[in-house]
Amino acid sequence: MPKLLVATHNQGKVQEYAEMLTDFAGQWVGLDEIDIGWDVAETGRTFAENAILKATTYARESGLLTLADDSGLEVDALDGQPGVYTARFGGPDLTPVQRYQYLLALLADTPDDLRGARFKCVIALASPDALLGTTTGVCPGQIAQAPAGDGGFGYDPVFFLPEHGLTMAELPPGVKHQISHRGRALRKMAPLLATAIR
């Protein structure tokens, strides 16, 4: 049974990949399970550059087929910010709650029709000696006026999905997997992964 590395220290994300790519008879592992305790510096200026950097570096280091993603939030009223700086938006020492509160404060005077936003995810697949491809998933929505829901993580409580009438943090996990940026990118990745495993 082949090992498939998900380039993360977050076991929840490893489980998410395994749940969404159930057709692959492999052992899904994260970085900690193969004793890689360090992080690749995300020096890219785009989600794709960062995903590729992580996938190719960890694939070479581990000798395993590796999936890596980079994702974040783009807000129209902020000219696409925070983008690749989503995890550090507002400063390096903020908690996730303080981060989305900072975002809400920036948009305090912005009306609903100008609060358009999207979550974007790029996933890269690499073997130990080559980049095999990338896929992109986008989930459109808008920034809510106030947080709601206790599911998910990060900006999910303030990311409102008009077609569902709920924030991302209020969605059941199965629905979130179907519509999320990562879910969409992963479904596009399935054919590439199937070819790589053959």
Task: Give structural attributes.
198 residues, alpha/beta, Maf protein, seven-stranded mixed beta sheet, 5 helices, 7 strands, globular
Task: Give your account of this protein's structure.
A hairpin with a 4-residue loop joins strand 6 and strand 7 (166-167). The protein is α/β, with parallel strands linked by helices. 38% of the residues are buried. The longest helix is centred in the C-terminal third of the chain and has 17 residues, at 181-197. Strands 2-1-3-4-5-6-7 form a 7-stranded mixed sheet. It has helices spanning 11-20, 47-62, 96-106, 173-179, 181-197, and strands at residues 3-6, 27-30, 65-75, 116-127, 130-143, 159-161, 166-167. The mean pLDDT is 93. 31% of the residues lie in helices and 25% in strands. The protein is built from 5 helices and 7 strands, in the order βαβαβαββββαα. The protein has a single domain (3-197), classed as Maf protein (Alpha-Beta Complex).
